[in-house]
Please model this.
Amino acid sequence: MMDMKIGWIGAGKMGGPMSCNIMTAGGQVTVFDPVPENVAGVVAAGGTAAASNVALAADSEIVFSMIPNDAVLRSATLGGAGIFAVMKPGSIYVDMSTVSPEVSAEVSAAAEAAGIAYLRAPVSGSIALAEVGKLTIMVSGPAAAYERCEPIFDAMGAQNFYLGDGDQARYLKLVINLLVGTTGAVLAEALTLGRKGGLDWNQMIDVIGVSAAASPYIQYNVAPLKARDFTPQFTTEQMVKDSRLISEAGHAAGVPLAIGDAMLATFEQTIEAGYGGENLTAAIKMIEAKSGLDEL
Model:
């Protein structure tokens, strides 16, 4: 891995620590991000700054990206101003973002035409897990490219899974976020119902955390929920973005997603209530207010 020229596009709350973990494991990383402060954080950890996406890609054997949405993925990769115009045949592009299978397929076709191996590698986990290199990484695309990148994935994640040669990783990320989001939405309703029934807030959360309904997601949130700490690890705005991707993918595939659509509505209402920048668990505050409860 130390011999590979690695480029990294997108050094925000997730991409920053992920790229730094590659350097901790011995990798050499060149980074670009439109926000100078994000670049500065990676450079302080030993990375090299690039002037643009294209400048970075022209000198990299492997380019990773962790970017916000479909539109940024398109603009970063496609057309004359995209990185595929300068990446060498035989190089590897790894996108670790959460984007739609539809746009991912467009990128795949363009990568294949340019002789570039394209890996889809979205992650499951929070900012805290990204910082300590304990993400779960789901990968699909050419098997040989996956094998070459596996040591880099190991630097960022506790586990990585190879799922196939197409867009399987995109669908699995949406499946997992459907489960996370619906759990978060129903947890908001359940805790509000408990408060209405006179339950002690801390005791209720403790019991749920060891009950048959407990899950790693709930257990991870026990301490923040008891403290009413909604510091963003995964914001409500991010959950709405992903919920819309889930809904669109389900409808395109002919899969009825009544619960998924209700989840989307819950988080849209949470944004409308003013909690878009807070953790997705802030849906609790929206449900409580609608139920006539004051903040604890």
